[in-house]
Amino acid sequence: PAQLPTRGTIFFLPNHPTNCITSQKKVQIYSWTIAGSSGLFFRDGKKRIDYILVYKKSSPQVEKRCTFEKNLRAEGLMLEKEPSLTNNDIMFVKIHAPWDTLCKYAEQMNIRMPFRFHLRCRQIKSWLPRNPMKLDKEALPDLEETDCYTAPFSRARMHHFTINNRETFFSNSTRSRIVHHVLQRTKYEDGKSKMGINRLLGNNTYEAAFPPHEGGYKSRHPIKTHGAQNHRHLLYERWARWGIWYKYQPLDLIRRYFGEKIGLYFAWLGWYTGMLIPAALVGVFVFLYGLFTMDSSQVSKEICEANTTIMCPMCEDTCEPWTLSDSCVYAKVTHLFDNGGTVFFAIFMAIWATVFLEFWKRRRAELTYDWDLIDWEEEEEELRPQFEAKYSRVERVNPISGKPEPFQPFSDKLSRLMVSVSGIFFMISLVLTAVFAVVVFRLIAMEKFASLNWYFVKKNWQFATSGTGVCINFMIIMSLNVYEKVAYLLTNLEHPRTESEWENSFALKMFLFQFVNLNSSTFYIAFFLGRFAGRPGKYNKLFNRWRLEECHPSGCLIDLCLQMGVIMFFKQIWNNFMELGYPLLQNWWSRRKMKKGGGAGQNVDNKAQLPQWDKDWNLQPMNAHGLVDEYLEMVLQFGFTTIFVAAFPLAPLLALLNNIIEIRLDAYKFVTQWRRPMPARATDIGIWHGILEGIGVLAVITNAFVIAITSDYIPRFVYAFKYGPCVDKGHHHEDECLRGYMNSSLSVFESNNSLHRYCRYRDYRAPPWSSVPYEFTLQFWHVLAARLAFIIVFEHLVFGIKSFIAYLIPDMPKDLCDRMRREKYLMQEMMYEAELEHLQKERKKNGRRYHHEWP
């Protein structure tokens, strides 16, 4: 037909006959799509698709859908429907926002657009080291930079803005954001609460709603010779491919395609990964120091040579006395993580966390300036439709905008918050109950392993108990994911005002649940294991049945290392599988069903022939919670890297290796496996920054307690300077000063065993032949005082250094502050000059018209 565009691709589908084409086979015209941009435009090849709605033809919600679409057209949007090529029951609604509608809502949403004066230079000189994940502009020659001033769009001042082409003035992400704004506020029934696409998705009126990708991410031709087909193709080639894991991230392009919120996430993840490099190097050096000094350690030597030192049984009934030299390997492995570099590394990581956060503030300030987010405030964020519907009857004047808006009374907010807090405490108590169950399992397994006939397990029963306990604890951690739904329900119960408030509230709940779930067993091993076991002849028992577990003679630190290593390693593997492997399997299964399914799916032999909306529909939707899961995984990893780093110096190295993979996993997932998320704006990483600062404070406290209580650093220090052979003899080598330490740290117990009348145990108690048998010795009180003094000195010293560093590093570079002030001044001058120039042109035009019309 002559009305069709002159170029394009024709798809065919039965049940729509036409007499325009003659052939031996029955073929019918299905729809028209532009060549090279299949599925990006309406049938006329001119109107760009800004959003896609998907519904089932068999859905009974026809009336709601018709009313909703009618109201969308009344708001100025244009709609066009297409059936799916892969599923006869699926129908797509393509949405296009015309120029007038875009201008109307851009003004309502205060979207900043380029001003017509191009005098801006956004390059900021900074004394910060070059970000290892910064945009490599030389690798992206096709990416155009816009260094012009921007201002909130206004139809009355449209002549001030740079409008060279109406089709490209609003970017694809901006167009999608405007359409999403309309979809969120359009009614589908009469009534104040009957509005928004979210509710229609919830009651299955629509199956999905998403902005389309800008085309395919692969091309037959190399990008170096033929260039990129679209921004998605460019992102895949320069960001998501595994072969460029060492390349810089194209943050500007990520922000342009996915929005500022996702761009800030990858900027933060890149900055965090780059800052892990020095931490990982120092951690490796500390570990290597322990490795090289393992055989020469005086404590390890004494344990390995103690062939005649008989130790008391470690459990009841089934355990027998054993020699201290049996734990030689255990003592050497403990020295890897408990050596002279432990205190230094703990102080280093506490300072590192502060430097990381302070430098990130500066990096964020530069990004918000480059991305034109300086003047964007949270007050400009729209209210959630659910909040508007719930509290539409109660209004108050917004103190910032001066306009009336829905308001949540304080009494209602407080009551809902109390219910939410009660739910949080209930879930945390559930997690602590699970930890208690693991403790009971360890007590039972301890006796069972010690009584086995298998010599290897019987000899290493303590390691077997710790290993199985850690594995069971990990399975419990992964199975307690029900709290995600609980957090979702509790957050919705609170009725947050804006989307950012909803996300912050949900993120805080998820962090609390996950943090307690992940770290409660680690805290138990670090601070409670072996502290209340008692002594021989007077052991404390759980339920008067199971004797409480006690630490190994070489300390509890090896149990803490094992706990952290297993959980950190396996959790990262599981997270990586769930992030990439699970979507890959889902997409593969969808393609398999599409090939095996009947109906329309049989008419498509090649996936490349599918229009873009069908391709996107077959992809997985982005997580319903947005970036919460992505941030949560990294923040929990940050906690593991800093909180117990004194016990596991290789944690930063594992985190670095994981994050190098994580960046490409997330990039590949966003570009190839997920539907395009709705581009959203943000000026920071939200509540996660406060959580990171809280973790930094907690890390200082926990590392102080780990060094003072869990490790043997303080007892060795007290012995060397108070009881050892070097006292009053001047300075000697550390190993010489620790000679006899192991014997000093072991007490004597008189047992009823006929073979071994006396046995040794780990404590500072008087011998049975003294006047006060089994009472604490003076050395015990010296060690206790030294531990308390170390905690106080360590915390005050590190907190003082952290505060001093935070004071030295301003949150915003001085050059950026001066540039912002200068820009604000120039912007006011240019707006005045532009308005004056426009008035002069209008006067001249009116003068000529008056002169021409005068008779």
TrEMBL record:
<dbReference type="Pfam" id="PF04547">
    <property type="entry name" value="Anoctamin"/>
</dbReference>
<dbReference type="GO" id="GO:0005254">
    <property type="term" value="F:chloride channel activity"/>
</dbReference>
<keyword id="KW-1003">Cell membrane</keyword>
<feature type="transmembrane region" description="Helical">
    <location>
        <begin position="417"/>
        <end position="445"/>
    </location>
</feature>
<feature type="transmembrane region" description="Helical">
    <location>
        <begin position="635"/>
        <end position="657"/>
    </location>
</feature>
<keyword id="KW-0472">Membrane</keyword>
<feature type="domain" description="Anoctamin transmembrane">
    <location>
        <begin position="254"/>
        <end position="823"/>
    </location>
</feature>
<keyword id="KW-0325">Glycoprotein</keyword>
<feature type="transmembrane region" description="Helical">
    <location>
        <begin position="265"/>
        <end position="292"/>
    </location>
</feature>
<dbReference type="Pfam" id="PF16178">
    <property type="entry name" value="Anoct_dimer"/>
</dbReference>
<dbReference type="InterPro" id="IPR032394">
    <property type="entry name" value="Anoct_dimer"/>
</dbReference>
<keyword id="KW-1133">Transmembrane helix</keyword>
<feature type="transmembrane region" description="Helical">
    <location>
        <begin position="511"/>
        <end position="534"/>
    </location>
</feature>
<feature type="transmembrane region" description="Helical">
    <location>
        <begin position="342"/>
        <end position="360"/>
    </location>
</feature>
<feature type="transmembrane region" description="Helical">
    <location>
        <begin position="685"/>
        <end position="709"/>
    </location>
</feature>
<feature type="domain" description="Anoctamin dimerisation">
    <location>
        <begin position="41"/>
        <end position="251"/>
    </location>
</feature>
<comment type="similarity">
    <text>Belongs to the anoctamin family.</text>
</comment>
<keyword id="KW-0812">Transmembrane</keyword>
<dbReference type="InterPro" id="IPR049452">
    <property type="entry name" value="Anoctamin_TM"/>
</dbReference>
<dbReference type="InterPro" id="IPR007632">
    <property type="entry name" value="Anoctamin"/>
</dbReference>
<dbReference type="GO" id="GO:0005886">
    <property type="term" value="C:plasma membrane"/>
</dbReference>
<protein>
    <recommendedName>
        <fullName>Anoctamin</fullName>
    </recommendedName>
</protein>
<dbReference type="GO" id="GO:0046983">
    <property type="term" value="F:protein dimerization activity"/>
</dbReference>
<feature type="transmembrane region" description="Helical">
    <location>
        <begin position="784"/>
        <end position="809"/>
    </location>
</feature>
